[in-house]
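REVIEWER CHECKLIST
Item 1: Sequence provided? yes
Item 2: Single chain? yes
Item 3: Sequence as submitted:
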Amino acid sequence: MQLDIFEHSRDLMLRNDVLGALEQRDAAAARCAWCKLLAEYPHDETLPALERLVLTLERADSAPITDHTTAAEAQRALRGEIEAAARQLWGDRDAAAWLAPLWCQLGQRAARLAFRAERADDHAVPMFLKGGDFESAAGAVQQIESWRRIPAPLAWMAEARMRLEGLDASWCLLAELAWLAPARFDALTRRLHDPVLTRLRGQFDAEFDAAPDANATCDDLAWFPAWLLTEKPALAASLGRALPGLQSAPERAMRLLLDMLHLERHGRQRELIAQRKVLRDLQPALYAAYMKSR
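Item 4: Structure as written out by the authors:
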């Protein structure tokens, strides 16, 4: 994370002294090093960004946040000048690493805030996720009553589970999210950057069209879990752990495909033929995807 241009110059050395203290999160040392840089190079272009981060350490607040408005303001400050300064000095990746403890601290301060659906972004969980503390994020989600029936906390838990345990352990939550809130499922799959999930999502987008006569929408993603079984039957056990939802057509289709795969394994052809007809009537595009490999 050190600046390495003009390696032996005096101004570079002084800048690196400030950066080194910031990396150690030593506010007093960072302020002292910043003052030396200011005294010798008062026009150095990094001074404002460096001071912004020094002030961030100096003004660290551990007091609990007791209302959602204060939580929103604290997040705006962290996402605004503080993040901009860190990115200017270190670039995106290293800035994110330096900011992560600040997000976790903010999550700890907001940990007592109750979940409010209309202020979901101001809850502690998104802060823990931003800071990479996925254990705390998962623990905080579990404190939300009926979290598995609410789009925001369900998406949060799916992300935390993905980060902690990987994709195989997360399919059931991802399926529930796709049925309950396809738009959130869309955003989450893009943010996770998981190579397997990204590839399957791209294949689904290219091949599946729930309503051929209409424009594709995020709502089509509700069919993704069922389609997945046509492409990856081995995921039946993982997807079968999804809890019953609102019994929407996409959910019924996935349950139907689980039954059909079971019938296939046991050679129960008469029952299988009847179930295929049900699937064809429910969703012709899904039926076509299923029959493609038969």
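Item 5: Key structural point noted by reviewer: The longest helix spans residues 68-90.
Item 6: Recommendation: ____
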